[in-house]
Design brief:
Length: 484
């Protein structure tokens, strides 16, 4: 008899194992997806033979920008900028997602108290059982029957295929990607403030030059008026010089408005209401810009926060693909509980008669109608491809930005040198034209056009200097500087 029982148990065990293997084999057949490896290759250099590995991106922004007023502005922005503070909360949200995913593969323990009333039909098995007498007192059970109890329940999904662990790792990478996103925003914020600051310095210098030239035009106007009185020129000359004075006076208000607008843009980035921006406008044109060491393209993979962010997001999507693929496999869930229960409160702690417990293990796998799982799997695969293309694009974009700014710095340097010579020549021509006009060897239009050309060249010279500052800032940004 015992041999028969043992043989039956063996048969039952083998049947259970065969069923489990069938579930695994059937559920493991998942849909195929396109697999492609991301391309991390970059050129050896930025279009020149330079292979210097020194990179200004590793320099702290306080040393890179040696203007104390600008440093104070950036310091304030890093503390008060609302958009940056919003991003900081996004980091906290991503951190909490990691905590939630981590808790998913740890056993869940619940503790509770329950009470209730139950009244089954008398002609049911349960109702007939309740008709019996109380096992303690021998009296008839109460009708309806009450239930009291307390205890603890535990549930745990055994992470056989790494579904939960991969989901947690994906959340970790998204959290780290959010930090890289914050770093990229810091880089952008610093460069935006620096560019606006240099824009402000350029406007100040343009306004100063315009005011100086207005005085020159006014002096020329007085001279022409005297010449008219002496019958050496006509009313037309007076009108032309007077119109030039009015035009430049009008332009002065335009520049003043641009100054106010730029100041308010900086104040907005600093998270404060409009106020005066402290700055030193002297020595703007004479400021010597040092040569910038751009390093080699491979350094962009480590220095650019947006590239690191894209890389971490790609890693997260790969893990999510693995996690969603595990949905096709059987899931093993274990549940257990223990406590006390009784139909009368005075029996509730009677041991062992009132002790209740349960233990169960479920091996469940999807066999039919797996469309939802397939859809999630295909979506995760498409998101992985999106992240891969975004990663490759971020590398390409970074390289192009650096190459453009390196070329821009070289061309602006040559342009500034030529414009400086042009400005010097035209400034000297003003006095020459005045002398020729006084000696009647030149008419008033030559004097007027010479002054106008000299003013335009000075404005253009300041504009070129501003572009040099911007190129210097933008190259620092493109190389990934500012966030370290």
């Amino acid at each position: 008899m015992k041999m028969i029982i043992i043989k039956n148990k063996i048969k039952i065990t083998l049947c259970v194992l065969a069923l489990a293997l069938a579930l695994i084999q059937t559920s493991c057949i998942g849909p195929s997806i396109i697999n492609r490896t991301e391309n991390k290759k970059v050129p050896v250099n930025y279009g020149s033979n330079n292979s210097d590995t020194i990179n200004v991106a590793n320099m702290n922004w306080r040393k890179y920008f040696n203007d104390q007023n600008l440093i104070c502005l950036i310091d304030t922005a890093l503390k008060n900028n609302q958009e940056l503070n919003i991003v900081m909360q996004e980091i906290n949200i991503a951190k909490n997602e990691v905590r939630a995913k981590k808790g998913a593969y740890i056993p869940m323990l619940d503790v509770g108290i329950e009470t209730g009333v139950h009244k089954p039909g008398k002609y049911t098995i349960e109702g007939a059982t309740e008709e019996a007498n109380d096992i303690v007192t021998g009296k008839k059970n109460p009708d309806p029957m009450s239930n009291y109890g307390f205890g603890a329940n535990i549930s745990w999904e055994v992470d056989i295929w790494g579904k939960l662990r991969n989901a947690k790792k994906a959340a970790v990478n998204k959290y780290l990607a959010s930090i890289d996103g914050k770093n990229f925003m810091v880089t952008n914020l610093i460069s935006e403030i620096a560019n606006s600051y240099y824009e402000l310095l350029a406007l100040d210098n343009q306004l100063e030059i315009l005011k100086t030239n207005i005085k020159i035009y006014q002096n020329s106007l007085e001279i022409v008026k005297l010449e008219k009185i002496a019958a050496r020129t006509t009313e037309l000359a007076v009108r032309r010089f007077e119109a030039e004075v009015l035009k430049n006076q009008s332009k002065q208000f335009y520049i003043e408005q641009e100054i106010i607008k730029t100041e308010n843009e900086i104040n907005f980035l600093l998270g404060r209401f409009p106020q005066k921006i402290n700055r030193d406008t002297t020595n703007f044109l004479n400021f010597q810009l040092d040569s910038i060491h751009s390093g080699v393209p491979t350094q962009l993979l480590e220095n650019r926060p947006d590239i690191k962010q894209a890389e971490r997001e790609l890693t997260a999507t790969k893990l999510e693909v693995k996690s969603t693929k595990a949905e096709f496999y059987p899931a093993l869930k274990i549940t257990a509980g223990a406590g006390y229960g009784a139909f009368n409160p005075k029996y509730i702690i009677e041991t062992p008669l009132s002790i209740v417990y349960n233990l169960a293990g479920n091996l469940v796998a999807p066999l039919i109608n797996r469309n939802a799982i397939k859809a999630n799997y295909f979506n995760a695969s498409s998101k992985q491809l999106q992240a891969m293309y975004n990663y490759e694009r971020s590398i390409l974009n970074a390289h192009v930005e650096v190459a453009n700014q390196i070329s821009n710095i070289g061309n602006l340097k040559k342009s500034f040198e030529l414009k400086a010579r042009q400005t010097q020549t035209l400034t000297e021509s003003i006095e020459i034209s005045k002398t020729l006009y006084k000696s009647a060897r030149a008419d008033y239009m030559e004097v007027l056009l010479t002054q106008r050309d000299a003013l335009d060249s000075k404005i253009e010279l300041i504009e070129t200097k501003k572009q040099q500052f911007h190129a210097r800032v933008n190259l620092y940004k493109a190389l990934g500087g500012g966030w370290k």
